[in-house]
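A reminder before we start the practical. When you read a complex entry, don't treat the lines as separate problems. The point of joint prediction is that each chain is placed relative to the others, so the output describes one connected object in space. Small molecules and nucleic acid strands, if listed, are placed in the same frame. In the example below there are two entries. Take a minute to note the order of the lines before looking further.
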Amino acid sequence: MIFDLRFAIEILPRLIEGALLTVLVTVLAFVVAAFGGVVILMVRRSGTIVAPIVGFLAEFIRSTPLLVQILFLYLALPQYGIVLDPLEVGVIGIGLHYSCYLAEVYRAGLEAVPRGQFDAATALSFGRIETYRRIVTPQVFQTVFPVLGNFLIYMYKDSPLLSVIAFAELMFIANEIGTATFRYLEPVTLAGVLFLVMGAATASLLRFAEVRIGRRWVRG
Amino acid sequence: MDAVIEARNVLIGGFWVNIQLFAASSLLMLIVSFVAGLARLSGSRTVRGVAAVYVNLFRGTSLVVQLFWLYYALPMLGIRLEAFPAAVIGLGLCFGAYASEVVRAGLLAVGSGQREAALALNMTRTQIFARVLMPQAIVVMLPGYTNLFILLLQATAAASLITLQELTFRAGSLNAVTFNTAPIFLTVLVAYFLFAQAVARSLRELERRLAFWRWPRARTA
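Here is the predicted structure of the whole assembly.
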């Protein structure tokens, strides 16, 4: 019973189909997380009474397992009339979990901007919005972008947790093939290989994007 | 909430499995990360290469894939593991790969002058490593390890996917019987949260106490 190449080639199309769903849910969740992180950071810095509440919630979400959060969204919410399909649970669950991490990343990026930059912007009579748009954000972007890329890759690797709610991503398909044929070696190994491919492709895409977007934004 | 109180022993038993799993895989992570981290700085190209393959393989694929591979695929190669040892090995090797980067970065962060000064003082290689490099590197590594310990703790929940009857797995079974969904999973979330807080606080306390090893002595506790 060693690796059966014929069987592996036979199941590859189904696994790639699953991998496409993995990419879909991850990219959508990343968009939610990228914007959610900004919202969380803004609320936390707003100085209103909701700031500490959101702060605690973010800390809570960050230090509890994503898997349990996914189960909660999928199993508990319908009892309160909110029914989400597995894709929605994936996008919201993974997106929300990581937005709490990204809020911290943005905060660190913001704190890394030297005070003098704000002072200089004020001296040049830049408005608040102008200061953030033209002076602060490009600098935050430069420090934050590589970290954002790493988180995107982390999110890929967390997406198989969605197999627990029967979302037909890569790992769910691999497991399904395994259960049906009693051969786990090929599907699970191929799933691993596909993760390596997705990770490498994302990493090189990000390196490309970092140069292109970075250049444009800094020029303003 | 009644179902949670009634079944508290089942849940506490599950949580105890998480604690054991966390302890065992933390230990494996520490050992593996030091071996791999040092191997990546080794003088031998082969050793460096093997370590790099291990680190990239485990960082590049998902923890869930690794757990499935150990538990479902490995028996086809003749090695049968129970769920608990499979989870310990999977978590330990996966997080060991991440942590080896922390070890590597920590050792590289110690200035080369330190090593040269120790050599000039005629210290042996072991002495240089144990008394000069390591104490300074550990202080640099600790925050990285703190993060990984917290992530590892959360990842113990994923062991439920390979049928280990830990807290999340038992919560799922309990839910299937009682449909007391929100209280069950909220209890589980709070349990993980408190556990994570306890681990984070003790590690930050350790960081504070070891801060005097930092050179130059920028911060004193």
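Discuss with your neighbour: The radius of gyration of chain A is 21 Å. What might explain this?
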